[in-house]
Amino acid sequence: MVVERSVASRTAIHAALADPHRLEIVDELAISDRSPTELGRLLSIGSNLLAHHLGVLEDAGLVKRESSDGDARRRYARLVPDALSVIAQPVVTLVARHVLFVCSANSARSQLAAAAWNARHEVPATSAGTRPAASVRSEAVEAAARAGLDLAGARPRSIDELTESPDLVVTVCDVAHEELPPRRAHTSIADDVRLLHWSIPDPVRSESPSAFAHALERITGRIETLAPRVRSPAEG
Q: pLDDT tens, 96-108?
């Protein structure tokens, strides 16, 4: 029965991917969580057809949809971790000189993401917030230390204070993702910058003492997926 379930699961995945639109959706969700509106705009797919394709991918266990932590009327689709492990992963290559991670307060998730990225990749990363807090959360500093990352000297800053010009921006917070578009005109984030989104729940809202460690675990998993797909211009 285990073999039968495995074959059935693989068959469902291949069947779900046997459509150009659904392959495009999976390629995009491999590097960024997206709302249906964003997917439709990026991939030029009508809302009814997109809803059908997302339903097929969800039934195959490839995609999940969850409500936003910001505007509860929104839902974000994300690729289920390791769902494609039995077949070839989609390949997306991004060229970047600098990566910027953004959350609302810049006190936990974006700080953790930048630290984890810099420990993994040669392309440098920094972080910022749409509404920065006064200080980095002590729980984030402790979670980072347990993972061998140093946030002891980290300080929150606003996206309005950027001195660098990032060419890849990753929001790790639904609120920041929804606030960023109207704020870009006041930053050094160019109009043609690639914007990605990871819908990571705010650990500050959780009553669990392991929330910050869990957030870092989710962020690290997303970095492990994105990092091989990012190269510096020097790599040619």
A: 999 999 999 999 9
Q: Look up the pTM and report it.
A: 0.78
CATH architecture observed for domain 94-235: 3-Layer(aba) Sandwich (3.40)
Give phi and psi for 194, each to the nearest 5: -75, 125
- 41-98: pLDDT as tens digits: 999 999 999 999 999 999 999 999 999 999 988 999 999 988 877 665 445 678 999 9
- The domains of the chain are located at 2-79, 94-235
